[in-house]
Amino acid sequence: MRVSTDDGRIYLPKAMREEFGEEFELIDRGDRLVLVPVPEDPLEALREEARKSDESARALKESALEEALEEAGQ
């Protein structure tokens, strides 16, 4: 699906905005750009994801650090 125009803006269809919200983080992955929806309450979204996990808080923190370092190229 193409969602851009000549003015450099990205336009998302109404159905996508209704499903994912209207605020996004744009992430540069080198070979592509990724739009990540920003939840209305990021802290509550994080808590909900943590509740779904079978891992301990320490394991979640360690895996998040490893992933961040990997993305940073270290």
Global morphology: flat
Q: Could you say which structural class the secondary elements and strand pairing correspond to?
A: alpha+beta
Mind telling me the C-alpha Rg? 16 Å
- Summed up, the helix count is 3
In short:
The chain is of the alpha+beta class. It has helices at residues 14-20, 42-52, 57-72, and strands spanning 24-28, 33-37.
Structure, described:
This protein has two domains: 38 residues; 35 residues. The N and C termini lie far apart (34 Å). The model has no long low-confidence stretch (mean pLDDT 84). It has 74 residues and is of the alpha+beta class. The relative contact order is 0.08. It is 46% helix and 14% strand. A two-stranded antiparallel sheet has the order 1-2. The chain is flat and about 45 Å long.
Q: Which SSEs are present, and which pair or pack?
A:
Layout lengths: L13 H7 L3 E5 L4 E5 L4 H11 L4 H16 L2
Antiparallel strand pairs: 1-2
Can you tag this structure with a few keywords?
2 domains; 46% helix; alpha+beta; 2 strands; 74 residues; two-stranded antiparallel sheet; 14% strand
